[in-house]
Amino acid sequence: MRLQRCLLALALSLFATAARAELVVAVDTRLGITRLSREEVVNIFLGRYRKLPSGQAAMPIDQPTSSPLRKEFYRRLVGKDLSEINAYWARLIFSGKTSPPMQTENTEDVGPLIQAIPGGIGYLERSQLTPDLRVVLEMAP
Known about the structure:
The protein has five helices and five strands. The chain has helices at about 1-20, 40-45, 70-80, 80-95, 110-115; strands at about 25-30, 60, 100-105, 120-125, 135-140.
């Protein structure tokens, strides 16, 4: 019984941490982009179009499948859970229309990849920002 309570407390704390996370969408400062609308971010991450306002190709970077941030990002962005997002991508991949965002192996890779890949755009916790990344959209809870 005590073990069950401990596991429940741990699960609740992990959920609470993801729900409180200050999620932001960021790009490399060298892109010169200062803001993106929520609609632009939706379109980029859902493959509707992959261009930044500057005309450069956008390269969206997704958190790992198991990341609580990924679940929270899509809930905040489009109000959908990961099973709905996965079904969406399965349909698009099958039709050959577009491909899903690049997926990282771990959460710590997102920031460096945003900087390394031309047109890189990704979401991460505010605490993971570096001086070379610029917040272009705040993801309100």
